[in-house]
Amino acid sequence: MQRPIREPAELVRSTTEQAGPLEREYRLAEWEAAVRATPEALRREQGAQEAYMRFWANPGVYGAAREALESGSPEDPGLRRQLGLIRLTAERYQLEPVLLERIASTEAQVRERYYNFRGVVDGRARSDNELDEILRSSADSGEVRRAWEASKQVGAQVAGGVRELARLRNQAAREQGYRDHFQRSLALDEIDEAGLFALFERLDRATLPLFASLKDRLDRLRAGRFGLPVEALRPWHYGERFFQSPPPLEPIDLDGLFADRDPVELAAATYSGLGMDVRGILAASDLYPRAGKNQHAFCTHIDRGGDIRTLNNLVPNRRWTETLLHELGHGVYEQYLDPELPWLLRQPSHSLTTEAVAILMGSLTGDEPWLRKVLGVAPPRAREIAAAAGRLEQAGRLVFTRWCLVMTHFERRLYADPDGDLDSLWWELVERYQLLRRPEGRRSPDWAAKIHLALVPVYYQNYQLGHLAAEHFRHHLVREAGGIVDRGQAGLWLRERVFRPGAGEDWQSHIRSATGEALAPEYFVESLGG
Question: What DSSP character marks residue 230?
């Protein structure tokens, strides 16, 4: 066993020198597997992941960081923060090598199934974009049901693997003294579990009356669309695979505004108006759909040195324009980190702060200034569209909040009992929080069709916290810069106050430093009309 490095500055230097190249290789392999999910690419990703995990599993690194922090040295806050990040990261991997390899191997098997999955409808394999288009545009009840059921076919293929991952992750967590992987993940992400669920209980109470009213309206509209009584509506009638976002609420064709517009040009113009140049990120990105490619979207910073890329599957509509703006929100956060920061601090303060920026930027497609200045809509028409888009945005936040409650409560229960009746639990939570009716007699692992449960575990709470932080940032930008679109002062504030400090502080301290206020749900609830 390697002896602990006891000198804090030397530990930080040694960790940086060794972890940096391993992380870069892992990110490159992860990228290659996402853009081209061949068996060779997936094997390379698994190997790079295992090498990265083995380094952080070194008990000497973990022990030295913990010992230095517990002894009260060093006094320098930047060095202490770096030691704290070493400890948090290394603790994730303080596992037996055989267990680490089993987790990586199982993740690789499940990942391959997700990446190469195409749902079959009427004998034809369909991409996620094609299934989404059917669910969004069809008024044929039978057709949307078949598309929805096809989107869930992957669940049966991966459910066993997801349960096994939960067991393995729990084993790792319990060996470290945690109740389960859920508790461990929150603790290592600097999130207090009791505080999180107290906050989510407040959000549940605050949003339920508003959501119930919205759901009644949606039910009437969807029933009319499909020529059905409200009582006959089922999950496939709501325009989306998981009811993460609402179907159209008003007779206005938002997608029509984007039909002949290039999302890349719109995104570049949006960020240029903030004084941010995203052309380098776009040039390095993989933007358009094809077979064998991950059908989702993400942003990655390969080397913490400026190699920033996004993966998208763009088509000219509002959803994918919003998605590109979102992913570039992650990208500019990374791009405008202070390049002089130590490697360990050269990352966002937290997942939720970069999600906040991404959510904020993605939401601009419904703002009147964006419609006028970027999309080129005439002012009277832009006001009309913005009013409708604003109502849709409020509905979207409500629907997404209720969906986040499903995901967070489900993951907590998944890790509490991976062998339990998860199929029934899923629908119990969907009925409670989303007010959807479960399909009669359906016994299928529909929960496992959600890729996050397997490959991005215990993360969804960060999306919701990111929504809260996004409204926190928006409130500050409106007050200090008069808005966001085409406001150089807004871009300057984001670069200097949010991006540049990196991970120098924990997320709660960082938000307070940037805005002068602690994160709270009031701005978010206010944005819902509540």
Answer: G
